[in-house]
Fold:
Amino acid sequence: MHNEFLNPFAKNTKIKDLTLPYYAVFNANNICESRIALLIEELLHRDEKIVIAKRKKITAKKEYIASRFLIKSFISQYLNIPYKDLQLSFDQKSVQLNAMYHNSTVAVNISLAHSKGFIFFAITRANTDIGIDIEFQNQHRDTQALIKAYFHPDELSTLLEGSKEQFYQYWALKEALAKITKKTILEVLKQKTTQQLSRFHHISFQYQQFALAIVQTARIKPQPINLINFDEKLQLNYE
Structure:
């Protein structure tokens, strides 16, 4: 499968590359659990607080706090607007995560994915559609059964004979395709991946035990994926 080239990951202690598109990975597992309530109060918009109250799992709360803080921090700096006046809201009609500023949609596109406490997000200009995904590569998962049940017939032999890493790369690409085409994952799984990708620019790659994928309408330029470390603001816990 053809992959377009991106430079290696770049470690950043803060958001400093204020150019679009912007791609970043963050490990929300390191957020100190005892500070979750304080972070919700300090970092989230009142409407976001309603949403996070429905999240029961601690990992889901950490992912939500980190993703909202990081995405809004970038947009705040990029557009020079107050952080406190920004909120992220998922529009069910357009199946799109939007940044809102004084009840108006900010002219950027956002794609967000998370897996096992890691978040992966991308921000592009409004004229670039994008879908991304991150998948933890569970080596104990019965991927053979999933391949036989859900994948396109033309992909069966390649994936059944391939490695689990190859399976997760395909899966991540399909999840990213589902986001950019506004389809369900079940609709995308049965379609041939190479045919779907022919309409877009794409890349799939690895980070630690995760498979990541980017699918977008604009050409993917060589640039790093930002590894963000916000120790000071999020009070991360490395115990």
Observations:
- The longest strand covers residues 108-115.
- The radius of gyration is 18 Å.
